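dumping this here before i forget
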Amino acid sequence: MPHFRTLLVASLAAPLLLTAGVAESAPAKYTHAAAAKQFRAAGVSWSSSGNCSDWNKGTCTSFTNINRTTVAGAIAFKKASRCAVVITGGTERGHSSGTYSHRNGYKVDMSVKQPCLDNWIKGHYKAAGKRSDGARLYKSPNGNVYAREGSHWDATYYNGKA
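structure:
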């Protein structure tokens, strides 16, 4: 019977040992070059008004320190929607701050020069009200949020799914 008690105590303690001291880690990041390579391979393009990728210039489109899940989410969105995706904003200076911001790697802006993005998002994602600036919000079944701003969709990726 002592052997049984030892096994019982050990089996009850094992889950505690596995989770004790485990903290949420920071999101995995890409360099600009590594993210650009992933986007290029998936057929996602990008542009900037300054024709540059400098993280410290607001007229550039940079992917420096972008979350890997943001890159995966934008690629998954392109595959699911079959729309042409052109990123016009990444992690460059000038975007608003906050935990789930562009600068922290959670967001990209996608151009809406063609109606495909509007049609896909409004047709497949649930309307989720309006942001404080009036932008209409849509939430994907996977929890990512798309805000319709003037010339683009502001996409926030909490995971690597569409």
